[in-house]
Amino acid sequence: MSQSPLGRQRSVLVVGRGLTAAATAGFLEQAGLDPVVASTPTGKTPTGGTVLWRPGLVLLERIGLRRPVERLGTHLLDRHCLTADRSWTAENGDRPSLVAIDDKRLSELLDQYVRTGIREIDRAVSAVEPTDGGVRTTFEGGVTELFDAVVTATPSLVSDRPEASKAVHSWRFSWPAGLPDPPAPAEAWAEGRAALFDPVSEGVHVSLVSTADVDAAAALSLGELDRRFGRLVSFPLAAADRPSAADQPSGPFAALDQRELRYSRNRLQEPTTIADRGIVRVGSAARSSIPGDPLTAALGIEDGWVLADALAYGPDSVGAALADYERRRRHRERALAAAVGEAAEACPADRSPPLAQLAARRRLAFGHVHDGQPHPLAESIPQRL
After folding, report:
1. Is the N or C terminus of the chain more exposed, i.e. has fewer CB atoms within 10 Å?
2. Predicted pLDDT at 4
3. To the nearest whole number, what is the mean pLDDT of the chain?
4. Which EC number(s) are documented for this chain (predicted)?
């Protein structure tokens, strides 16, 4: 049982292995709450690249991660719209507003700066159940333990989101070696499809997004990906490398090892609550997101920061503290939604509503490029801890 600086005893379990879970555990530990960390049976180390918006970078400074991330990451100071053949460039400021970092490098930093100081349970969590005395947590092997609060960054652990009537599909891979690198950060848009390119020190990570239906076999077919996205990823290629009418994949898909392709099906329904009876959602468990959204990682970091503040310095009871966490995060989401709704078009194309939302969120994150300074919400860091 841990104790906050105000003398409150809290037992907190954080479930997850990625950036959001590690940052949350780091903030809780900094607040004197000595959290315990565990994973889920299906927990996987993320692969690809992560883009960090300024609020997340600022908060990472509190656990010693901002400077290492900025040193190893790539500062995003320009933006290319391949569909419209337009580009924008920002001046190089003292501290970056947007940084892309390879996920393997990021995981190494989390091990070095955060996880080494956090207690970890070597059994994965298989189930959580709210009770009158706390959250009963079941670990692999049938071992159970009671916690005052269980924090999860894993959507599958607790889900009250109904199945989406129309899913958003995404694929991620690293741009194959031997082909000319695309200009990055860049994006190309078409009706119901998008190709997004983010540079990291190891190369360029590609995210492909589609709102069109796709079956399991087609989802992992390089030929099918070429048919859907060939023209969107052909902009950086020489004429000889551009997609052809042949059935065989061409361009980057011809050079891609299928084992390096990562496919996911993303539901866009929001959970009805993000803090209920001791179970707290952070990161991707707290909100729906589409790969390529540059706000996602920062919002997950903010979740952990606000939660640590609410538990350590907020209302006396755990239930009231978690209600305060939910209230503050809902307020932040509403402010972001309003700003996204006002975002000016920067990379025009015919898009479905989910992709129009994604484009607007990218416009907000790249405010320092388009407007010469970050959007005011990028400077509005959750305070108090």
Report:
1. N
2. 54
3. 88
4. 1.14.13.8
- DSSP assignment of 165-199 equals SS-EEEEEEEPPTTSPPPPSSEEEEETTEEEEEEE
pLDDT at 322 over 50: yes
Sign for the CA dihedral angle at 301, 304, 307, 311 comes to: negative
Of 275, 12, 328, the C-alpha closest to 150 is 12
Query: What is the residue type of 279?
Result: I
pLDDT for 239 equals 46
Under the banding of pLDDT at 50, 70 and 90, the label for residue 309 is: very high
CA distance 365 to 359: 10
Q: How far apart are the first and last CA of the chain?
A: 21
**Rounded distance, CA 138 to CA 148, Å?**
14
Q: What is the dihedral of CA 220, 226, 232, 234, to 10 degrees?
A: 130
Burial of residue 356 (number of CB atoms within 10 Å: 0-12, 13-18, 19+): middle
CB count in 10 Å sphere of residue 230? 20
Beta strand pairing call for 186-190 and 78-81? parallel
Q: Which residues contact 331 (CB under 8 A, 6 or more apart)?
A: none
Give the pair of three-digit tokens for residue 154.
């894993």
For domain 2-161+268-344, give the CATH number.
3.50.50.60
Which helix (H) or strand (E) segment is 119 a member of? strand 119-120
Q: Up-side HSE of residue 289: CA atoms within 13 Å toward CB?
A: 21
What residue spans define the domains of the chain? 2-161+268-344
Closest to 348 (Cα-Cα) out of 189, 235, 143 = 189
Give the orientation angle of helix 318-342 with respect to helix 353-365, to 10 degrees: 90
